Amino acid sequence: DAGVIQSPRHEVTEMGQEVTLRCKPISGHDYLFWYRQTMMRGLELLIYFNNNVPIDDSGMPEDRFSAKMPNASFSTLKIQPSEPRDSAVYFCASSPIGAYNEQFFGPGTRLTVL
Amino acid sequence: AQSVTQLGSHVSVSEGALVLLRCNYSSSVPPYLFWYVQYPNQGLQLLLKYTSAATLVKGINGFEAEFKKSETSFHLTKPSAHMSDAAEYFCAVSASGNTPLVFGKGTRLSVIA
């Protein structure tokens, strides 16, 4: 079985540009999570979905960040406009119903905003 | 609110030596506790979990952790370190089976030949 798939793996962009990160969760999983990892703040939960519906977006840092899950097999995290402080590794994770915290992580997208 | 503290951002052990990674938690309710491992340039992978059953939990790759309520600890151990164990290890806590994980800052394990 394929694991969680994220694209791109690396993204380098300039300040002010729009960035879109993509995630394909494991088939059959009901929960999808977006995390951000930095040296300073560690691993932070940004938002999570249950059956494609956003449940908790309290971790989204500001209005420049938005996330969507149009169907069970695809989610996006968008940053518009991007800023240098958004540079981080962004992870997508998914988990099955009944095992919410047994999360399967993708390989991450390393974002660098110049 | 739940939180975890991992003591030591970096631990170095010799191959074949005991691995001990420390995690203390704070929780207002009986916690669910987890250890995840992150190998270089990869996402996190679940090692083991405690969900109020047996206090000694066995995970993958020979790791185990013991829940000690009196010490509010959930330390991760492995009797004999392998080179392949070199990675970052994260302790995490949740208030229940369906509330968000709160991760510690992580401990980087180096294994010396």
Could you describe the 3D structure shown?
The complex is a heterodimer of chains A (114) and B (113). Chain A is mainly β. Chain A has no helices and 11 strands. In chain A, a hairpin with a 2-residue loop joins strand 7 and strand 8. Helices cover 0% and strands 55% of the residues of chain B. Chain B is built from no helices and 11 strands. In chain B, the strands form 2 sheets. In chain B, strands 2, 4, 5, 9, 10 and 11 form a 6-stranded mixed sheet that branches. Chains A and B meet through strand 5 and strand 10 of A and strand 5 and strand 9 of B.
Number of strands of chain B: 11
Terminal Cα span of chain A:
36 Å
Please count the beta strands of chain A (DSSP E, at least 2 residues each): 11
Describe the biggest sheet of chain B?
6 strands, mixed
Question: Which geometry of chain A do the CA atoms define?
Answer: globular
Overall geometry of chain B comes to: globular
Mean pLDDT of chain A: 95
State the helical fraction of chain A.
under 10%
* First and last CA, distance of chain B: 41 Å
Q: What is the tally of helical segments of chain B?
A: 0
Task: Give, in order, the helices and strands of chain B.
Answer: EEEEEEEEEEE
- How much of the sequence lies in strands of chain B comes to over 45%
- Count helical runs of chain A: 0
Mean pLDDT across the residues of chain B is 93
Radius of gyration of chain B equals: 13 Å
